[in-house]
Batch of 2 targets.
Target 1
Amino acid sequence: MNAMPDPSCHTAVPPLAVRDLVHCYEGSNVLTGVNLVLQPGSVLGLIGRNGAGKSTLIRAMLGLLQPLSGTATVFGEPALKLGDASKARLAYVPQQPEALAWLTARQMLDFVGRFYPRWDQGFADRTLERWQIPPNKLLARLSPGERQRVDLIRALASQPELLVLDEPAAALDPVARRELLREIALRAGESGTTVLFSTHIVSDLERVASDVAFLHQGRLLMHCTIDETKERYGRLWLPERIHYAAPTQSLSRRRHDDGSLSLVVERDANGAWPEAANLPGARVDALGLEDLFVEIAE
Amino acid sequence: MNIKRALLLPWQVAHVAVRWLALALFGAAVVGATAFGIFSHQPDMWVRTAGVIGVAEALIGSSCLMNPVLLAIDAHQLRMPGIERQAMAGVLLNGVLGSFAPAVVIGWFSGHVLVLAVFVALFCVGGFLWSLLPRYAGLVLYLAALKATMFTSWVPGPGKAHFLAWALPALVLGLVLVAVCWRRWVLAPNPYRMSRRSPPVLRLGLGAAVAGRGPHSQLNRRHPWLQARADLRGCGPRHPVRSLRVALGGSYQPLTTMGWLRQSVLVIAAVAMLVAWIAVMILQGEAARTFSGILHSDAMTFLVAGGVCVSIIYASSCLGHLRLRWSCVNAELPLLALLPGLGTGVKRDLLRASLWPPLRILLLAALLALALVTRLSGRAEVFALLAPISAAGYLVAFTLLIFSGQRPGRWTMLGLNSLGLLLFGGGLFALPFSSTGGASALSVVLLWGLFLIAWLALAAILLWSARLGWRGLQRRPHPFLSN
């Protein structure tokens, strides 16, 4: 199910926005001038290979790291200097959460809940029970999947307007993963919660996201709706004899053993494929989201 | 077998900083103690000199020299031939060299090479055993050494007749025990799986790193009955300091009375054992028939040295805990950074939450030391007072540096480590000399002059580091950015 963004919300302040974000670790660039705006009510799936910079981007967007340059805002406030009001409106679940391992699940939810004005204790209790998490066991003693689910409960019980999840399904079994996706879709559809989640699992993205952003080697290669990816991008195949006509702008370019060339290309503003697509022998194949991801990432 | 390679192996396995620190410590102990022994004119000073070198040997034996056991374990599990033997040979060769070389030097002046070598080797084997035996056995070893220093007529020291009669068999027995323990851990099917019987070599330092244990491994290892329970009463936006203490965890978190008892039961048991042991020794009364006698006995020197080490270890463990928390990007930092209600004074509250609980304990240690110092006439016991104070200085400066994300430069760290080593290590080694008045006036003046300069330099560097940390923290938009 694709959550539909509420068009009326588009005039509001974007819950998350970054401009010209640059960051590097030990001399190598992790983010290279990333620009991204998350529209209210949208469910954005951030996809990319391992080490593409997804977690860094998310952390920079939320003010959890100080980027080398660029700006990040949350509900219009600088991410690094968020006020309590903005913090109360957002929830974030990191990849493999490890916070407060010395508390039990119940203690952790009780402790954190005291800080959120709209905390739903009933939801926390019910979900703990429904997801069969032992409430009086130390978090350190729970499995990674259980830890992840406790942190998801923590995030959802605060009733956030903006939910940011970094690889939320990585440690979950298929049943828990499906429940989580259902919860996200429900929150987005019924409460208008804006969601940003990163993932490797393309099927999750297709199931729940309204938009997709593809991050590759620290650069945001595309950002559009899920439906657009199918219509806007395609694989242009050119036999060896017409290589010269290959467009210079493409998302990926690969030469095959037989000398042919395949490129991931994008329609122009008028909806037309590059001119080379019209040459005799050239062919444009439609790409599913997973194929598109693999073509670009390889 | 390549002897040179075997000799170098324990040092190659050790972390580079630990390697140089250990070598510097041993070198300083040998040179300092030998020089002190030569310049003092007491007839039994060479025993104290060997004792100081022995303590250094025991420290190195329990830290650096035992690391090859990890190599032997991995080599055995990977079925790699030859390495196990090389590792064992490396440990033995270093032990023999570390015991005999200083003994030859001191023996040159005093003429008791064999006695001194056996004496130092006993310390070395003690270090090995502390490393390879379970933790509680380490405490027993410490108590045994404490008892040996008080009951010198039962256990003749190296300056007395019949020393070799018990020392040589004890040394052989110790070596056999080392071999048995070594074999046991190398052949164990899953040696890195922690239990109460796991030895320090697998629990600490390189062992912990090799085992790949996460930050919460101790929580996982503890029996549920021994788990501390946080006291969440009063937490919330109205009490940010208390809430931050809960979020910092470890020794920072407020505990319920039952939680505190659960967490401290092992420490309480160990302290009770120590106190009972001392009480028994007082009742049996030999070396120390009066309270004053106990205060001036060598056993008290041992206790003071133990207390100094504990205060330093405590400060280091607090800093290690904070450093770990501030390096995890998926733990408390994101939670705290996005937690509403902590208010605008969060930096100040964080400092209060992170500094006051450990400083309170170090202050208590300093007061205890002060009480002890006022009862003593020995000059080096002042060191017992300065240790918790300087540990507090380290704690404040490095806490600020951690929160600010600042890292002192290489030279600053080198200066701090060298001075720390000189003061803590040198102070420990100086205790046996100056507390009994065995040293000459000139050497005592030189020693204290050197110490005074070193303390002042250390204080200056710590102040500079704290200033660097404070400024860095002020520059940070919020204190929950990972380093």
Note: Residues 39 and 155 of chain B are 28 Å apart (CA to CA).
Target 2
Amino acid sequence: MTELKFVYGDPQICSGCMICVNVCSMYYSKVIGPEWSRVRVVRVEPGLDFPLFCRNCEDAPCISACPEGALSRTSKGVVIVNDGKCTGHGECVKACPYNAIRINRDTGKAIKCIHCGQCVERCPADAIWITTEAELSEKDADGRMARLYEDHKEELYGREKSA
Amino acid sequence: MIRGIGGQILWVDLTKGRIDKKPVDEDLVEKYLLGAGFLSRMLFDMIPLGIDPFSPKNVLGIATGLLTASMFPQSSRHVVAGLSPLTEIWGESHAAGFWGPELKLAGYDAIMFLGASKDPVYLNIENDKVDLLDASHIWGADVFETDDWLREKHGKRTRTLGIGQAGENLVRFAAIMNDRDRASARAGLGAVMGSKNVKAVAVRGTGKIEVADSKNYLKQMDIFFDRMLANPFTKERVKYGTTNLLELMNHIGRLPTYNMKQGVFEKYEKISGETITQHYLVKPRADWNCLQRCGRYTRVKTGPYKYIGGSPEFESQSSLGSRCGNANIESILYTHHLANMYGMDTISLGATISWAMEAWDEGLLTGEDTGGIDLSWGNHETIVKLTEMIALREGFGNILAEGSERAAARIGRGTEEFVMTVKKQEIAGQEPRAQKSMGLAAVTAARGADHLYAFPVLDEAGFDVEIKKRFGNEYLPEIADRLNPKFKGVMVKECEDYMVVIESLGLCKYGTQIPPEFYYEDVAAALRVHNGLNLSKQDLKTIGERIVNLNRLFNVARGVTRKDDSLPDRLTKEPSPVGPPKGQVVELDDMLSEYYEHRGWDVETGIPLPETLKCLGLEKDWKELL
């Protein structure tokens, strides 16, 4: 099986500018709007900024959650949404442990990061990159980044309560 | 139809507790853009003459620009304006952050606060749902506590703007803070917010911004991104923020020291950008779509000045440091943090304390005045203590909370001589004897002493190429020489016109003025793809000129003339004692006359000439004043 890739960011390098968020919504939806973006940036004080993407889980609960079979993994290992099949009921959104899928309010279809790299290319801080679990565990050998994500997971992946 | 904006203005009548939504007037945008220009027009028409700034008749406006929440580099900003309690003339201040973009995403471009609430309130905006809610339980809270509470109640993604204790207590240089540590600091508008009993504005916007030319949008922005990142200044900004300006300013003798007695601080290394970067920087912090990342996140790990939080920048570092003779860097960082917490302008704060320190040094102030507090130069414990006392208006702090000019008028005894203000606002960290354009800019700025209204930095650091691009060869080489007063009138005039346009677009002066990477044609290109507006360079220049003239009329109507466009005697009569500007004074009169001529203002009075106003379509406003 091909190695599963995903985009990941260092919360101690990310400056929180949201350029990745804006690039994504403009590139795919032709608007500026964080809700139309496949990446989120969450600021957690003191001093952390988390750029958050689909983590391309090996077991991909989003795929099995969809009753329409709209999500699948390509031969290159990317989890994609088939717009023809997606009816926007949001089972994948609920199933995602990283809160990395949302329904596009205009199209009614699920949207998620496919690690295309448009944002990575434009990140002024070089805080995000395309990686794999193996590569990441080497880069984050002391577990510094993993711990930061783990320590703040509720705030990072929790659902918003209002608005 | 104008694209790329929220589309609506919120009108909040605090007296009646009524909220109305009205569409943006597109004819007005063509003449004034949004942001600062929009507020200049609205408040000129709305704020009556002869009122106290704390009267319910004062109007507090908060507006985003046409390009706020766009993808132009550094496009996060909003502007606040009203009748200033510090200067009692035009009051305006700006801040970066995420609050402005969030307001846009909720569908609004501006909020106008009218009247005053009987009890403390905050405005809560969740997209279409807008409510005035009870704030009595957070009245008395500091800025961070207020932000914590609002985000706990309305959701963690909520962005907040508001005042701390300083604004509540009507400190005349209270700031309006947003996103915890961003400050619309100057002109004391936090106190206007306090006088209206408004604690905060919480916003959650989950909408989108539809741009005019989505096909070419990213392509155009990529060009801007590449240019911004290729500019050598960017690397320096990321590394130091603005903190290393301290050593650069010291080097050219432009660092306000000992209440502007001189422009060189012998202990500058202890409070330098290098020191901050090496020992206290956690990381650079950016606001919405910012590539420069001059924001800092800093920490003092142990000791009495322990904290972790946002920034500082050069202005705080110099006003709380060299200006007060203070070489204790941890106290500077901590005091800056306290000023954010209480919601105060660090420039006026440090400048007011440094005035008191000089008066103490001269024996004109004693322990009897200060309640036993020692005001010796560099006493950092005093600086920290007074910061709290000013915000809470306790003891001697209650006098300093009025700003240095009013405090000196109250104490008398010759302390007035040491007041470093223009139109009652303290001069920023730009020693004008070492850069003449800054002296002129401080007196012509509509909101009282201010370096950012014109931000004339083109003569600061070898920008000859950009000067040539903007002005041609006509004024070189003198215009580029910071010690030469020649052609500073034309420079300040052109810079003001451009900067008020930038403030009306919601952009940052970093990138548009220093470094001078983007100019009219670039913002015009952005206005085309983002808003679908076809405005030429000349159109934009005229709009800038119109805004500056309207700001001037606002002040002329309140009695401002040439006599008020003046600097403290120290800067025009006392030669700078040390460093590169040794022997220099600010030759203000000549520069000012040149400036008025370029402006089309009466050289004797400093009042705009009728034909100037006619060209700008302001003749009706002039007649109303007569």
Note: Residues 19-29 of chain A form the longest helix (11 residues).
